[in-house]
Amino acid sequence: MDPNNSQVNQRISTISAHLNPPKNSQMEGCSGLGPANCRAKGGSAGFKVAILGAAGGIGQPLAMLMKMNRLVSVLHLYDVVNTPGVTADISHMDTGAVVRGFLGQQQLEEAVTGMDLVIIPAGVPRKPGMTRDDLFNINAGIVKSLCEGIAKCCPKAIVNLISNPVNSTVPIAAEVFKKAGTFDPKLLLGVTMLDVVRANTFVAEVLGLDPREIDVPVVGGHAGVTILPLLSQVKPPCSFTQKEIDYLTDRIQNGGTEVVEAKAGAGSATLSMAYAAVKFADACLRGLRGDAGVIECSFVTSHVTELPFFASKVRLGRFGVEEVYPLGPLNEHERIGLEKAKKELAASIQKGVSFVRK
Q1: H or E element: which one contains 94?
Q2: Nearest Cα to 191, choosing from 307, 282, 74, 326?
Q3: Cα–Cα distance, 161 to 287 (Å, whole number)
Q4: 169 with 143: CB under 8 angstroms?
Q5: How many Cβ atoms sit within 10 Å of the Cβ of residue 239?
Q6: Confidence class of residue 18 from pLDDT cuts 50, 70 and 90?
Q7: pTM for the model
Q8: Cα–Cα distance for residue pair 140/156, rounded to 1 Å
């Protein structure tokens, strides 16, 4: 047989298998999803990233944006439903990352094995009238289960936790990792970037500037009054009237509710959250690469206050969080806000810890 014809036939067979996978390729026991295992030559060098909850409202745009990230070489998409379709869709994008899909609890361990970064947007979204605490009973169990898989199969991965309520789910994750003997506080980061993104946008609107030129530190936590924008530390330096401070603080703290109500029952902040999550994930990957001066806000294990977890600026590096920065000088308005934030945060943190220890 002509060797050229043999090669052509082999390529055609490979493409055919990619387009028409066996019907049982998504059944229990199958290694990943059939079509995603077909791979052309020339995959890019970079980091391996898994998204847990990739078929959800945040997960889908997050997966698309991570597929576009040049620092990602392998992208694993995991969920309990609908992963095959999302994987097929995302995998058609002509960017360097290899995409593989994983469906159901039985494929969780395979999905996270060998990952450098695991992003968790899994869980149910907020609905009108719902607080983040209303989400707790459902999302707490989901996060606990996913973190058990991470502890077993990729304990050295950086974990970006998005699932709400972040003020409680980060402590849940920490307790799971402690039980497994794998806890490293530098590797567990609650994603509060959406609060920063909103703060930059809203402040820019008030000042009449490009939001990309604004940097607003947002500290505390990721719900209501625990979200504390430090408007006295905005860069470039500026001043606000008390009315502007009250307006901006309230809007930043209630930005999620603004979106939930605007969507009128059709969802929560999914697109802006995906954007913020990718912005933060990219910072983590740049830190892993060894870039200097990568500083973002995140909800992490902290000694900035008396609380065990707190959001503030952190420096990211090859080993995750390499430095947690103090809050810096606060004005009277911010000091009052900090005390309110700490009181609510303490209860939320304890709620997460108790969930695992009970």
Answers
A1: none
A2: 282
A3: 17
A4: yes
A5: 9
A6: very low
A7: 0.89
A8: 22
